[in-house]
Write a structure and sequence with these properties.
By secondary structure, the chain is an alpha/beta fold. Helix content is about 60%, strand content about 10%. The chain is extended. It binds guanosine-5'-diphosphate.
Length: about 500
């Protein structure tokens, strides 16, 4: 969804790569790419201007400071990296991090009123939010169906409620404000501590319907009012948000359909225009496709560095941390077999759609050719082939010869060439891992990795965990192999000894 913006920032970074310092001229050149991409992504014009101005001022004003900072910390940060860090900070402040969270009632059920235009995704979001808060915060939710104008709306919410196992309250023939009050009493009586109210869609120009919202607000005093807007409508989403906010003083915004080809403009402009931030994003139609909006994650993604934090969080949900570290160590030592490979594939599968996961990986855009499809079927195929192997074969894939490959192919319903291809790819991956383990500096050859590390350095993070110290290797005879520095020392020592011997001989002759 953010490809357009990402492209602009990537081009800007490339323009500054290799430059020895930031000057007004090269900053202007870099900013030009960013401007074009922001406008292309439908970011509000004033927001674009202000953003570029802030980055420029900071970039030019802080060169000296960068150097001092760099010296102080014994860090060398190139202007490209520093510029990216500035953009990163500015993007975060643009989208607003850590401001206004959902308010939870101290007494009685917490209430969240969902408002917005018709078809923006209110009903779907109501269901998703109930599920999210129940699963993540162990709340006991109830939904109130208060859209009495669209007959199918109540049934739609009831169906969703059944699917996620959350009760839905509705009373035929009642006006929304009364219905909601009754619903709240019911929630209290049945021990619920979260009530999400799905209201009817309306335009802000429809005075009668807007007054209904005013009345609901003043009667039930909801803890939160969330405005749902469809990201696909671009700048209109921002206008809608501003209008609803003026009238209702909303808590925050839920941007839906961010999985579609929305260009991200709304996500970047809502906060600057309305002062209210995006709190959640809808990433699909199913009930588990609601994510908390984290400005930091989006900023890192926009900058082409991948949503590293998000990826780590996804990963932590499904992987046992200690086991993952153990596996990684094994991999780097070359002690890696098809069992571990299968475990990893399963972990990736659990992380959700492969495409979503891959998009969060750093450098994704640089590694995968544009337009290339990665789908979950690939993983299922690999799993089927590994499942058809014997225990011995999984531990030592090198023993798989033609006849074994043919058997595996038959067992898994795949072609022999597919089995062989899997083995080749497995071996390549293994070799690569071993090389990385031997030579951590190879990590920095991965496109984008260096930039990521520099950003981490600039943020003052400790990166020694990411780049391990060069391990001592052993030769075939079990002797430790010397590092370049040690070799140099030994050569010097040898030279000095030879010189001393020569001099001693000369003395003797005399
Ligand atoms: P409402 O009229 O505001 O209650 O909107 P609905 O909840 O009925 O949603 C309208 C349509 O948008 C439905 O077809 C939903 O499945 C779809 N929808 C809602 N949220 C998302 C989302 O995050 N992604 C996608 N792709 N579709 C969504």
């Amino acid at each position: 969804m953010l490809e357009v913006v990402t492209k602009g920032f990537r081009n800007a970074r490339l323009k500054l790569q290799g430059k020895s310092e930031i000057t007004e001229k090269n900053i202007d050149e870099a900013l030009r790419d960013i401007r074009i991409s922001l406008l292309e992504a439908d970011v509000e014009l004033h927001v674009v201007k202000a953003f570029l101005e802030h980055v420029k001022q900071k970039a030019i004003g802080e060169i000296i400071q960068t150097k001092a900072y760099a010296k102080d910390k014994k860090l060398k940060i190139g202007p490209g990296e520093y510029f990216i860090k500035l953009c990163h900070d500015e993007l975060i402040s643009l989208m607003g991090e850590g401001e206004r969270e959902l308010a939870f009632a101290k007494k009685g059920p917490t209430t969240i009123m969902i408002v917005g235009l018709n078809g923006s995704g209110k009903t779907t979001t109501s269901g998703k939010l109930a599920k999210l808060l129940r699963d993540q915060k162990q709340m006991r939710p109830m939904l109130i169906a208060a859209d009495i104008y669209r007959p199918a709306a109540v049934d739609q919410l009831r169906t969703l409620g059944q699917r996620i196992n959350v009760p839905v309250f509705h009373r035929e023939g009642m006006q929304p404000p009364d219905l909601i009050e009754e619903g709240l009493l019911h929630a209290k009586a049945t021990g619920k501590n979260l009530v999400i109210i799905d209201t009817a869609g309306r335009l802000t120009v429809n005075e009668e319907l807007m007054q209904e919202l005013d009345e609901i607000k003043s009667r039930i005093k909801p803890d939160n009012i969330l405005l749902v807007v469809d990201a696909m409508i671009g700048q209109d989403a921002v206008k809608t948000a501003a209008e609803f906010d003026r009238r209702l003083d909303i808590t925050g915004v839920v941007l839906t359909k961010m999985d579609g080809d929305a260009r991200g403009g709304a996500a970047l402009s809502v906060r600057a225009v309305t002062g209210k931030r995006v709190m959640f994003v809808g990433m699909g139609e199913s009930m588990d496709k609601l994510e908390e909006f984290r400005a930091d994650g989006i900023a890192t993604r926009i900058l082409g560095l991948g949503d590293v934090v998000g990826l780590v969080q996804d990963f932590e949900k499904v992987v046992d941390q200690e086991k993952a570290e153990e596996d990684a160590l094994k991999m780097l030592k070359g002690d890696f077999n098809l069992y571990q490979f299968l475990d990893q594939i399963k972990a990736i599968q659990k992380m959700g759609a492969l495409k979503d996961t891959m998009e969060k990986l750093p450098f994704f855009h640089e590694m995968v050719p544009e337009g290339q499809q990665i789908d979950d079927k690939v993983l299922l195929n690999i799993e089927a082939m590994i499942n058809s192997m014997t225990h011995k074969e999984r531990l030592n894939p090198e023993i798989i010869d033609d006849s074994r490959a043919a058997r595996i192919a038959r067992g898994s319903g795949k072609k022999v060439t597919e089995v062989k291809d899997l083995l080749v790819r497995f071996q390549t991956m293994k070799d690569l891992m071993v090389q990385m383990g031997k030579k951590p500096s190879l990590l920095s050859r991965i496109p984008g990795f260096k930039e990521y590390l520099n950003l981490a350095k600039a943020r003052g993070e400790d990166i020694s965990d990411i780049i391990p110290e060069e391990p001592r290797q052993r030769t075939a005879y079990g002797m430790p192999r010397l590092t370049a520095k040690q070799k140099q020392k030994r050569r010097k020592k040898g030279k000095a000894a030879r010189k001393a011997r020569k001099q001693a001989k000369k003395k003797k002759k005399k």
